Amino acid sequence: MRNMGLLDRRVRGFVIAPLLLVIGVLVGPVGVASIILYVLAAVMAATSAVGVCPLYAPFRLSTGAGKH
User: Of 1, 8, 20, 40, which residue has the fewest beta carbons closer than 10 angstroms?
Assistant: First the structure.
């Protein structure tokens, strides 16, 4: 069951994930902070691709239009 709308998915996939990658590279490509940023970028890209945010589920949130 998808709980993310198209705008939410696009912002995560095309803005947030690339921005986290760039910040990770600027911080230092092998530091602990950069690894955390890379993992967050991967999570943002994955949730964007799938259309499901696990953190939305417990709160029954949905950014999509209508019921899902």
Answer: 1
Name the residue type at position 29: P
pLDDT, tens digit, for every residue of 16-42?
999 999 999 999 888 899 999 999 999
Residue 36 CA neighbour count, 13 Å, CB half: 4
- For residues 45 and 34, give the distance between their C-alpha atoms in angstroms, rounded to a whole number: 16
| pTM flag (> 0.90) | no
35/18 Cα distance (integer angstroms): 14
Q: Where are the domains of the chain?
A: 6-59
34 CB neighbour count, 10 Å cutoff: 18
